[in-house]
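Recall that a protein's primary structure is simply its ordered list of amino acids. Everything else, from secondary elements to tertiary packing, is in principle encoded there. The following example makes that idea concrete.
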Amino acid sequence: MTEVGGCRYEEAFGRVLDMADVGRVTWLCQQLDAAELLNQEPLPLSQSVLLSLMQQLGSDLARVRLLFPSFLHTCSTSLPAPFRITGS
């Protein structure tokens, strides 16, 4: 996917999320380092893409937890404070 190589993350995730295929979403996530991607300033993904990403990854938690346990956490902490999901 040329969008990832060109650092066009919003476009790459948007295309994959539009496919509504968790397998493709997880594949794209495996190609990237979540912490490195989501700690960039400014954040290269919009709130809507982050929320869609979390929703689709959350639909297959068994696989997601095995592949990249911190990816959902990193996504949730990248959201603005009112939208963050925190564990208690």
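The first helix runs from residue 2 to 5. The helical segments are 2-5, 9-18, 22-30, 34-38, 47-58, 61-67, 71-78.
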